[in-house]
Amino acid sequence: MKVLIPTPLLSYTRTREVEAEGGTLSELLADLDRRYPGLRFRIVNEQDGMRPHMRFFVNGEQVFDLERALRPTDAVQLVQALSGG
After folding, report:
1. What is residue 82's predicted lDDT score, i.e. its pLDDT?
2. All structural domains of the chain
3. Rounded average pLDDT over 23-52
């Protein structure tokens, strides 16, 4: 399935859109990490929770559960929130 990568993580993938596989978001992130080592750690913390600055969208709908089931036709977008002061 297609996965859109946020600009701050392009150093891992070198391209904005990549292909990955997985029956759940968690499996998809594991596949992304196999293809692009170190990427998952930037998205998920040591307790397997989403990092506070990351957002996940599946087919345009925000998703909060890493065990969310995915279909091969789904489009996944990873968004990194910006902060500043």
Report:
1. 72
2. 2-80 (3.10.20.30)
3. 95
Alpha-carbon distance of 53 to 40, in angstroms, equals: 14
Q: What is the pLDDT of residue 81?
A: 81
| One-letter amino acid of 75 | A
Cα 26 versus chain centre, distance: 9
What's the CA gap between 36 and 29, in Å, rounded? 10
Residue 55, burial from CB neighbour count under 10 angstroms (0-12, 13-18, 19+): middle
DSSP state of 34: H
Edge-to-edge order in the sheet of strand 2-4: 17-19, 2-4, 75-80, 54-58, 61-63
Whole-prediction pTM: 0.90
As a whole number of angstroms, the distance between CA 85 and CA 70 comes to: 36
For the stretch 38-66, pLDDT in tens is 999 999 999 989 999 999 999 999 999 99
